[in-house]
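2024-03-11 09:14:02 INFO worker-7 job=invfold-0412 stage=load source=structure_tokens
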């Protein structure tokens, strides 16, 4: 009786659920880029906090633009970091994460650079404003390093179409001979 029970046991086992929250390295983020993204988060947060400490502004438009870019960079980079380093990216429904990552990082790097130049050119010259600008340029450098690292390791994901294999099944030689002779 024991031998027949063994025969009818299930043949598949469930894969144990992973208890890890963060999976670094992952398909979309290696350890080096994880550290770079963390630096982007910290530097953009410091630039934002220092900009918020500024009490008076001579011309407030560059300050407000820098505020918008540094806050956006901080919040969205945290979001992207969480998505790429956990399994949450699978639940979002986006399949082109490399393009999203590179596109976002490039746009933020450009906006951070422009806003830091504008804020550096037109501020009151206080030490807090200068420190904020310095962290803005450091954050820009971190985003550029991230872009360079991404392109060096994964290439440029834009314009690549997935290679599809033809769905035509090969015809066996016997059937091919019959088709050539006109009899099927």
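2024-03-11 09:14:09 INFO worker-7 stage=emit residues=184
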């Amino acid at each position: 009786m024991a031998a027949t029970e063994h025969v009818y046991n299930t043949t598949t086992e469930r894969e144990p659920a992973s208890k890890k929250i963060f999976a670094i390295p992952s398909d979309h983020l290696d350890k080096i880029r994880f550290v770079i993204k963390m630096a982007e988060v910290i530097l953009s947060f410091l630039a934002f906090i220092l900009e918020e400490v500024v009490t008076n502004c001579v011309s407030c438009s560059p300050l407000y633009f820098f505020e918008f870019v540094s806050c956006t960079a901080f919040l969205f980079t945290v979001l992207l970091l969480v998505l790429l380093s956990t399994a949450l990216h699978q639940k979002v429904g986006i399949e082109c994460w490399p393009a999203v990552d590179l596109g976002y990082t490039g746009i933020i790097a450009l906006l951070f650079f422009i806003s830091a130049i504008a804020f550096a050119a037109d501020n009151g010259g206080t030490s807090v404003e200068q420190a904020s600008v310095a962290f803005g340029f450091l954050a820009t450098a971190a985003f550029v390093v991230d872009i360079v690292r991404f392109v060096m390791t994964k290439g440029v994901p834009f314009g690549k179409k997935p290679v599809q294999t033809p769905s035509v099944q090969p015809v066996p030689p016997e059937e091919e001979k019959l088709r050539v002779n006109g009899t099927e």
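2024-03-11 09:14:09 INFO worker-7 stage=report msg="The mean pLDDT is 83."
2024-03-11 09:14:10 INFO worker-7 job finished
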